[in-house]
Every structure is written in C-alpha cells, then in structure tokens.
Amino acid sequence: MLRQIADALSNHSRRCIRALPVGALLLSMLTAAGVTVCRAESPSGEPIGILLAAGDITGCHQTGNKHAEVAAQIQKEIDAANQVPVGILALGDLAYANYRNQKPQPGTYGPCFDKFAATWGVHKDRIFPVPGNHDYSDDITPNKKLTPAKHYRDYFGQRIAELKSATGISSGPQDKRLSFATRFPDKEGWLLAGLNFYGSDVDSKTWLKEQLSASTARCVLVFTHPFFISSGEHGQGEAYTPIAKLMPILYAQGATVLVSGHDHHLEQFPKVDGAGKRDEAKGVRPFVVGTGGATLYSTYIKHPLSERFANKSRGFLKLTLYRDGYKWSFVAVDGPSVELPVGEESCNRKSPA
User: Fold this and answer.
1) 3-state DSSP percent of the chain in helix, strand and coil, to 5
2) Sequence-ordered list of residues with C-beta below 8 angstroms from that of 89, at least 6 positions apart, any chain
3) Is CATH 3.60.21.10 what the domain over 45-346 is classified as, yes or no?
4) Most CB contacts within 10 A, which of 41, 86, 150, 282?
5) Rounded CA separation 19/36 (Å)
6) Left (φ > 0), alpha (ψ -120 to 50) or beta: where does 275 sit?
7) Do the beta carbons of residue 194 and residue 130 sit within 8 Å?
8) Which parts of the chain register pLDDT below 70?
9) What are the backbone angles phi and psi of residue 88, rounded to the nearest 5°?
C-alpha cells in the first residue's frame, strides 16, 4: 500500500491516478499533495446534460440578497453550457418566514417566496423542485391559518404536472402529489426521482421502489430535502430517519447519487450501501448542499465518513452528466472556493439489454 501511495505521489503530473483503497483522511492527504484522484471507471463520451443543485435558498430576513447572487451565477453556468441542456435541482426550503422567538410570523413566508420566484424563478422551466419543511410549516396567513405549501403548489403545480406527463403519467394541477420521477435530458437520459417527505404525499418506500424498478435508466439520481447522513446542525438528530428507511432500496436498485439539503452547508460522502457503510464498488454517493443562499450553519460534528465539509461558502453542486457516469464540483458564489477530493465516477447500473 505504501508503495502504491509513493508511486502516486511521484507521478502526480499525470491527469489523475486511479483510486486506491484508502480511507478518507489519506485520500484528503493525497489531494492536498496535488494528486487528483479519480475512480476506476470514469465517464465516457461527451456530456449530455448539466444539473446545478442547492437547497435552503431565500433567507429574506437574515441574508438579504444572497440567493440572488447564486441565481446570477446559475445564469452564467447556463450561458457557458454551449448548448448542453442545464437543469436545476431546488432541494427544498425555497423560502423562509420571518421568525420571532423561534416562531414563524404569519404573512411573511409569501413575500419571501416571491423573491425566490423573482430570482431563481427566472429559470422555472429548468427547475426540478422538492419542498422542504419550511415550505410547509412557514406558510401561515395573517389570520394565523396554516396553508401547507400553498405558495409552492401554486407556483410549481403546472411544472410538476408537465414533468409527470413527460414520462407518461396522467397529471394536472389538481394532483396534490409533489413527488415525481422524470428523465433528463431526454428519454434515454438519467432518471431523476424527486421525493417529497412532507404532507403525506406518497408512501415513500412503495413509490421509490416502483419508480426505480420500472426504469431502465443506466444512471439514477434521487433528490430530497432531508438528508441521509450529515455533519451539520441536524446531523445528530432524526432528520436522517426518513431516508435511512429508503437507503436499502436505493442500494438494491443501483442508484448512483442522493442529493439533499436541510443542513446549511456543503458535504460530500463516499459511496455507501443500504446500511450506510462504505461500498466503493456498488454504493450510492450522498451529498448535502444546503448552500443556496440562506444563513450557513456554524454548528457541526464531523461525521466519520465525511470526505469534505464546508460551511463558509454559498453556491451549488455542479453535476456534469454522461450516458454512463458523471463528474462533479462545487461552484462557490459567496465565500472561498471548495475543492472536492473526488470528482468523477461511473454509474452503478448495467446498460439496458
């Protein structure tokens, strides 16, 4: 093993070295030494699409216009894509009410959501959305009546219906289910499964298994608001429980990536199995990207599997998609740049027969 590491360091002028069976700490040391580590199988061919992902976006009453700065950078990425299709994963908590004494103030969520619509909403036809807990719990009218996700539903109802219809599912604005699955960027592309965990939307285990097992997609990305694992403020609580019940399904069905928000930081984890144990061969790679513009959290306890944790930069995860794999990086907008230790790998599923 030491010989392999020494050889890697002595040959760091190559484009990248093949991944060694080392832990995250040693992987980080190699990266710090100037060695770019790549996976045993890298994606091939030309890019077919780009996804830009972030949640926890419009913190109107705390962070002013940070969400608008992120939206402006998204526009730059679209302009630079050179006709490669670009989609946006909006990972929930798109807006926030104003809080006093830890309670959301009636009538303050709607104006904040309007600011989301005025900035990120410019790209509405590119957005693949899932709601977060704040999109449900903060939507209170001035007469203190709770209207769960009303602004979200009114704004994205038709968009979600169109995404469902594109995959042959009859839907319309009257369909209250906010979970959906679709292909991107075309019918032979990646399967994107956006799962809503709030408001008794769908039976998550049944729905997810049905969507994944019925799909012949080579590559599968599942995106949610709550995460599976995190080093952040909610990482030691119960936020992971809903996803933990689904990880065996994602693993068994050969899902490639799980992208979530909820904790306001960026974090990359290694590929893990259904029980959350490292599995570089067949595992699902989780990301936490709660960096869309809201206040970043300072509280954290480093998870033993964490490959990179960053809570000083707002921005988004950039996923460049190929037919058989993907590459990724973090685009920092407000704060220092963030280098990720690994940035490309192949998808788990075999090519359809």
Assistant:
1) 25, 25, 50
2) 51, 52, 53, 54, 127, 128, 192, 194, 223, 259
3) yes
4) 86
5) 9
6) alpha
7) yes
8) 1-40, 168-175, 236-240, 351-353
9) -125, 125
Question: Tokens representing 213?
Answer: 């097992």
The residues that bridge with 309 in the sheet, in sequence order, are 267
- Residue 49's CB is within 10 A of a number of other CB atoms, namely 19
Measured distance CA(337)–CA(282) in Å, rounded: 30
Determine the pLDDT at residue 10: 42
Q: What is the pLDDT of residue 12?
A: 39
92 in Cβ contact with 127 (< 8 Å): no
Report the distance separating Cα 57 and Cα 127, nearest Å. 13
C-alpha span between 72 and 59 (Å, rounded)? 16
8 Å CB contact between 285 and 49: no
Q: Which two tokens stand for residue 295?
A: 């206040």
Using alpha carbons only, give the angle 293, 159, 156 rounded to the nearest 5 degrees.
Answer: 50
* Residue type at 243 in one-letter notation: I
Distance of CA 236 to the CA centre of its chain: 20
Find all residues with CB under 8 Å of 95, minimum gap 6, and list them: 57, 58, 60, 109, 112, 113, 115, 116, 134, 135, 138, 151
The token duo for 88 is: 């946006």
Dihedral of CA 16/21/26/28: which sign?
positive
Provide the token pair at 66. 């940070």
In terms of Cα–Cα distance, which of 17, 21, 48, 50 is closest to 34?
17
Q: Collapsing DSSP states into helix, strand and coil, what is residue 72?
A: helix
Length of the chain: 353
**What pLDDT does 42 receive?**
85
Instruction: Return the domain boundaries, the chain.
Output: 1-38, 45-346
pLDDT at 18: 42
Q: What is the pTM of this model?
A: 0.88
The CA distance from 257 to 212, in Å, is 13
